[in-house]
Write a structure and sequence with these properties.
The complex is a heterodimer of chains A (269) and B (600). Chain A is built from 13 helices and no strands. In chain A, 75% of the residues lie in helices and 0% in strands. Chain B is α/β, with parallel strands linked by helices. In chain B, strands 4, 9, 10, 11, 12, 13, 14, 15 and 18 form a nine-stranded mixed beta sheet that branches. Chain B has a three-stranded parallel beta sheet with strand order 2-1-3. In chain B, strands 5-6 form a two-stranded antiparallel ribbon. Classes of the chains: A mainly alpha (269), B alpha/beta (600).
Chain lengths: 269, 600
């Protein structure tokens, strides 16, 4: 019996079809809508309106700041955790890692809803009333809670792959713990940091489910803005989406998301 | 060549997909399909919680059926009685399932019995009028939609809708074809059962300016829409809040409660521009006259004094609540900002739960939701089955005027009009209107040509003294609903009145579900915004929802971000550009990048 042989190119077809219909064509549609007006004439009107409207620029800036704060907090929490997990000789460190990653397996709307209820409970306690109206705090908290596993995992995998003999060499040559950390751990875990930052920073700019549910819909980030515009003005909505896309593209490029370096070692999930 | 091949495979599969899909539907060519596009949770979906199920089962506190000692769970019902069961068997040809049948299934049975044709309903749902509108203009095909008042007008004015059949040809000459509005046709349940009050509102375009479509023809609602549900907007409030003074305070502030600091963080607004802009107009115009329009309070005073006719009053408030000119927007904008600062949240769905949980005191709500929230609080358990913190909630309609809304059935161009109109008629049978109204909590437009709907209202809200449960009879009032129920044969002294508990009739479910005539008199219906106006309002809404930074803050933050970006670029590529590299010490030479690469 003749076994049908698939060349690499044939095997690519399903994915190529997928790419064309669900990535490339939608992208072109967005570009088309962004540069046309309501009568479908080519126009730069949306572009000009976007960059001359302080509300839209502010929203982008706000989203950037929220995303930045979220990323920094995630990094500050995740780095020690990943470091300890990767370096310790604990027997059950897999269990601890699982404890951080496990929430990822539960639907995230469910988790945010649970968090909302938790905040409700806390804000009904004495002395915690401020919580009910601190919408930005709750939004950032929700984002951190939501994206923390995405920071821990890449950090953990890169640190696990740092050769322990490097630490020994460093100690041999008389470096103290701090120097070892700054000269060996941090540089070698850089790919992990970069991919963690990318994986937290980008979604937290647009994840408006969190800001809607925890911020009482009083916090508007760019994702919500786009969704609102798509209710009535697809052209402006597309323009905002396009600007966001460019921001994302630039920040991915800056954090090295497109490099295919060898020392990435699988951290770029 | 290879590339071309790839593309052709891709295209071929794209063309193949739809034909595969149509293959699936081939087998049943004698079945017609009715595509209905409705709001979420807006029709009797069968099972527990439906009228039929609840009527035939006595439920305990957990909502489970109670069994008697013989193991029977069914009880006698006043409305779902033998007559009702016989009627059901007559219309659908099946025995009434006591577990609560789905209304859509019943429609298919009825349709086949009546018209001798099999039918299948493809039922899908939407979340907002605007989502639905986008679907339609993108070319999604449906036979029947259920938009709200202003969206009906928008769709009609833009020419997306079919008219209901009026038995005339294109020139308006009767040609003996089907007439949806002819009460003599046995299947025309809608026209026979619709409340005269709603029919009248539709007839007169609900006090809105007469719109013209693209061909310059005047647009009337009744040509394009058949009513489904209606209601008012108002405040659900917790009467025990503020040491029991909230009720009086609300009456004193009226719309102004939205910006009153005493309820800061204890009140919610709707998370959509139409409802919240409407409320902001209420706050702005309540006491003060702006922009050539009188204040709402002044209009009300003139109406009460009898110097302003009801029609003029309706027109006056309708104009105020639909104002979109620049001047109005500039007055309303700071008011919206104040509202945002004062409220607990913008919400669409969470207000009811927050209300029952006692977290907020006031919830700006649609009347159907109000009924639901009041019922929920009364039942003592919240949506998740936990004991609720609030035992009772009330409903208040602003006394200086509020919103009256309709949701109605319309047929987009190319719809199967025959099946669509049959569906509307089926929903308009009083027995079915009861089921829908009970399931979703809103008020049906159906009043019934006979006694059925009055009996239903009386059954829900009529008060009878029960010596086993109460020590003395509660205070009752005769609640007048003549305006809604009066039929063709109405004579002045034949009033429709329900003997109801006074509390219920003045501030609770009955008041919310069937507002009295004096509330209706001060209601305005939303008109649609044309393109320019809707752009202005949406820009306004995005300014309200987002935080606008000062120009200097934008500049500072942007510069910071750019600086960080530049720094990263410098760190990454600085070493590869000679200009950025450190100058060599005396006596050394800098190896240029190009030379370096060559050496390598």
């Amino acid at each position: 019996m003749k076994i049908p042989r698939f060349s690499r190119k044939t095997l690519c077809i399903p994915y190529a079809v997928f790419l064309i219909f669900f990535v490339i064509i939608p992208m072109l549609v967005i570009v088309f809508y962004a540069f046309t007006d309501k009568n479908m004439h080519i126009s730069l009107g949306n572009f000009i309106r976007f960059f001359s409207d302080p509300t839209k620029l502010s929203t982008i800036v706000y989203s950037l700041v929220i995303a930045l704060i979220t990323t920094v907090i995630c990094l500050l929490i995740a780095y020690p955790v990943a470091y300890i997990l990767a370096r310790s000789k604990m027997k059950r460190k897999f269990v601890i890692l699982m404890l951080f990653v496990l929430p990822m397996w539960i639907n995230f709307v469910l988790r945010v809803n649970a968090l909302r209820e938790l905040f409700n409970l806390l804000s009904s306690l004495g002395g915690m009333e401020w919580l009910a109206s601190s919408n930005y705090f709750k939004t950032v908290f929700g984002m951190v809670y939501d994206f923390l596993p995405f920071m821990i995992l890449p950090l953990y995998t890169t640190m696990l792959k740092i050769d322990p003999s490097l630490y020994e060499a460093s100690a041999d040559l008389g470096a103290n713990g701090f120097t070892t950390f700054t000269r060996i751990t941090v540089p070698l875990s850089m790919p992990g940091i970069m991919s963690g930052v990318t994986m937290v920073f980008l979604p937290s700019m647009t994840n408006y489910v969190v800001s809607d549910m925890l911020g009482n819909a009083k916090v508007t980030i760019i994702g919500k803005f786009i969704s609102d515009y798509f209710g009535n003005d697809w052209h402006m909505g597309s323009m905002i989406a396009l600007v966001l896309l460019i921001v994302v593209f630039v920040s991915t490029w800056l954090t090295g998301g497109f490099k295919s370096e060898e020392n990435v070692r699988g951290a770029n999930l | 060549m290879k590339k071309k091949k790839l593309l052709s495979v891709a295209l071929a599969s794209a063309f193949l997909l739809p034909s595969l899909a149509s293959l699936g539907g081939c087998g049943s060519s004698d079945t017609i399909v009715l595509r209905v596009y409705n709001w979420e949770e807006y029709i009797d979906e069968g099972g527990k919680g439906t009228f039929i199920y609840d009527e035939l089962h006595e439920l305990n506190d957990e909502g489970d059926p109670v069994t008697d000692k013989n193991g029977h769970v069914h009880i006698e019902s006043d409305i779902v009685n033998d007559d009702y069961k016989a009627w059901y068997q007559e219309t659908t040809g099946q025995k009434l399932s006591e577990e609560g049948p789905r209304l859509l299934d019943d429609f298919c049975l009825w349709y086949e019995r009546t018209y001798g044709q099999k039918i299948r309903v493809e039922y899908s749902t939407f979340g907002t009028n605007e989502d639905m509108y986008n679907e339609i203009i993108l070319g999604n095909e449906y036979d029947l939609l259920c938009p709200s008042d202003y969206m009906i007008m928008k769709l009609a004015a833009e020419g997306w809708l079919e008219k209901y059949d009026d038995g005339c040809d294109e020139n308006g000459v009767p040609d003996g074809s089907y007439n949806f509005f002819d009460p003599e046709v046995p299947e025309n349940y809608y026209v026979r059962n619709v409340s005269p009050f709603i029919a009248d509102k539709f007839e007169n375009n609900a006090g809105l300016a007469i719109r013209k479509d693209d061909n310059g023809e005047e647009i009337y609602w009744k040509d394009y829409a058949a009513g489904y549900m209606w209601g008012t907007t108002g405040f659900v409030y917790n009467p025990v809040a503020m040491n029991g003074t909230l009720e009086a305070f609300l009456e004193e502030c009226d719309w102004g409660i939205f910006t009153n600091e005493k309820v800061a963080g204890r009140i919610t607004a709707k998370d959509n521009v139409r409802d919240t802009y409407f409320a902001a107009l209420g706050v702005t115009y309540q006491e003060e006259a702006h922009n050539q329009a009188q204040s709402l309070a002044a209009l009300k005073a003139q109406f009460d004094a009898g110097t302003l006719s009801p029609a003029d009053y309706t027109e006056g408030i309708t104009r105020i609540f639909n104002a979109t000119d620049d001047e109005t927007i500039s007055i309303v904008e700071p008011c919206l900002m104040d509202i945002k600062k004062n409220i607990f949240s913008f919400e669409t769905d969470t207000g009811k739960a927050d209300m029952v949980a006692g977290k907020i005191w006031l919830n700006y709500a649609w009347s159907g939701d109000a009924v639901y929230a009041i019922d929920l609080a009364e039942s003592g358990v919240d949506e998740d089955g936990k004991a609720s913190a609030t035992a009772r909630l009330n409903y208040y309609v602003p006394k200086t005027g509020t919103n009256l809304f309709f949701d109605g059935w319309v047929m987009p161009k190319g719809a199967n009009k025959q099946a669509a109109q049959a569906f509307v008629n089926f929903l308009s049978m009083p027995q079915n209107a009861m089921r829908n109204s009970y399931y979703i909590g809103y008020t049906s437009v159906i009043a019934g040509e006979n006694q059925e709907m009055r009996d239903y209202a009386d059954y829900l809200y009529g008060y009878e003294f029960d010596p086993e449960e109460e020590e003395e009879p509660a205070e009752t009032v005769e609640y007048d609903l003549t305006y809604f129920f009066r039929g063709e044969n109405y004579t002045g002294d034949k009033r429709v009145e329900i003997t109801a508990e006074k509390e219920n009739a003045t501030k609770r479910q009955l008041y919310a579900q069937f507002p009295p005539e004096e509330v209706i008199a001060r209601c305005a219906v939303m008109d649609y915004y044309d393109r320019e106006a809707s752009e202005r309002i949406n820009e306004l809404w995005s300014r309200v929802k987002a935080e606008t930074l000062d120009a200097w803050a934008i500049v500072v933050i942007s510069v910071t971000v750019l600086a960080i970006a530049a720094f990263i670029v410098f760190v990454k590529f600085g070493g590869e550009i000679d200009f950025f590299r450190a100058r060599p010490k005396k006596g050394f030479r800098l190896v240029k990048q190009e030379d370096y690469k060559q050496i390598k």
